[in-house]
Amino acid sequence: MRRAINLAVESAPAYTLGPLIHNRHAVNDLEKEGVYAKETVSEIPHGAKCVIRSHGVDERTMTALQSRAEVIDATCPYVTLIHNMAHEAALTRTPVIVVGKREHPEVVGTLGWAGEKAFVVSTEEEALLLPEMEQALVLAQTTIGDQMYEDVCAAIRMRVKKPEIKNTVCAATEKRQAEARALSKEKDVMLIVGDPNSSNTRMLFKIASENCARTYMIEDASGLRDIPVYPTDTIGITAGASTPDCTYKEVVARMNDIENKINNVETQETVDDFASAFEKTMVQIRPGQTITGKVVQITEDEVCVNIGYKADGLVKKSDLCVSDVKIDDEIEVEVVKVNDGEGNVLLSQKNLINRKLWDEIVAKNEAGEYVDGVGKEAVKGGLLATVNGIRTFIPASQLSLRYVEKIDEFVGKEMKLKIIELDRAKKRIVASRKAVLAEEESARKKAVWGTLEVGAIVKGTVRRIADFGAFVDIGGVDGLVHVTDLSWGRVKHPSDVVKVGDEIDVKILNVDSEKERVSLSYKQTRPRPWTVADEKYPVDSIVEGKVVRITTFGAFVELEPGLDGLVHISQCAATHIEKVEDALHVGDVIRVKVLDVNTEAKRISLSVRQVLEDEALENVENTDIADEYAIEGEATE
């Protein structure tokens, strides 16, 4: 990161495509040095200097920049290595799987080098939804952490037979995360210094929060004023990779000042002060405190509540959650101000309810439970929803298991959500509907796997057709009907037998729950053609068929898939012919007479000549009958 900043400052005046660093203070400082962030290539003046940030860019963007500006490439060497590996895979048409956050600039850049066969997964659940592949190159976003990468790769191995897994997690990132994990287990308070937009900083906060309940994320030293710290607390401090050194040092210096002030107080004085403060809390109220009071007066705009304090509290009716409050009702309220300037205590019921609703969300998140949300507004990049009245953001990539073209279709829709990011300080929530759907689908699949029985005949729906067969959904699990199991006859392509959307009966041939593979048969749900051939094609019956093969001794005619009959050369025409092609050709649809059916030998003898002779005889008979009628008519006259 320092390398990128130094290159940018040395190149000033210059521009960057997107913020050079995920820290607004650092970006502001760079602007003072003559380095300006732009969002699109078209915003960068022709001939200007453009610094590629450490996340790198995709191949197309790099080409566009080089044709417009003087490019200074500050891409992290680790990221450059990832781009090169992705590009080499694209040249050989090898699928690339990137483990990381889909919207992260580094991942976006890598996908731009990976070609058409590229996938992004960020969780084990997403990895299990990948299509089955023979081989694939697996790369990691440099800042995701080794443990997360290993867990997701374990799931990838279940979908890819021969995965080529490259450990592209940045060693410095992993070391920083390991230190945060160890430190948070020992301290009472953890301070994570950095911009909340930084992926690296958010990951440090997540790791520390798992071990230390009092973990706070602050952008700079000014954030310390809102953090409660007690004399007996031990405090750990760490910072994201994008946090400027000066910001980190300022936080450390401020905490040292606080520590010194505490240590300079005499022990007895501290004890006395603490006892005094404790005694005061027994008789005083404070902002944010929850208390129960009795309604003593109701006016047009306010409700007066006796809270046992030297002054009654006032609640504006707009801050009440119930509208039918009566005198002597006991209500629970929160203290907003101890003194409003006129000696009154300002109270609120909504603040209290909102905090309880927030605490409920936090509790569900910690318990791993889903929350209920309602879509409110489609915005750039996703959907705004409300969960317990709390504004919640759902990224577009987290709305569904598949690409969502019209986000506004979710406005007003109730949905189950899984919280994937929760900022306690800012009361900000990022949630995923996709994660819920993935977990539900996984549970459905698990239930279905337990019911699959070899030899059973089940109903299914054709979902996808490939050259080698058809994939059929049998209740949440896709099974493969190989082209050889589609029909008893020859099949050029599966689409000749079934179409996408067809509902068909299939027989389960094999179940491999470990590899999540099911082999199915369509033809085995239908009778073998030869077992009923003598019933369907009785001797002397005239049927229609298609010439599929010609030999020197005759022509084979397909009566139905898997059932061919032979028209001997002597039966191909009404008169003698030298070769079969003089009368018949492959592809001809002809009428033939069944001469003999031998189901055991699987032979059917057919004749074209007999059909022609029968037709000729019928014509003669019809002519004789016509002549008789004519003679009778003349006699009558």
Q: What does this entry look like structurally?
A:
With 637 residues, this protein is an alpha/beta fold. 30% of the residues lie in helices and 30% in strands. The protein is built from 15 helices and 31 strands. The strands form 7 sheets. It has a 5-stranded mixed β-barrel with strand order 12-13-14-16-15. Strands 17-18-19-21-20 form a 5-stranded mixed barrel. A 5-stranded mixed beta barrel has the order 22-23-24-26-25. β9 (189-193), α9 and β10 form a beta-alpha-beta unit. The model is unreliable at 265-283 (pLDDT under 50).
* Integer average pLDDT: 85
What's the number of extended β-strand segments? 31
Helix-strand makeup class? alpha/beta
Rg over C-alpha atoms, rounded to the nearest angstrom: 39 Å
End-to-end CA span: 118 Å
Oligomer: single chain
- Morphology: elongated
Q: In percent terms, what proportion of residues is strand?
A: 25-35%
Short recap of the structure:
The chain has about 625 residues and is α/β, with parallel strands linked by helices.
Keywords summarizing the entry:
5-stranded mixed barrel; 5-stranded mixed beta barrel; 15 helices; 30% strand; elongated
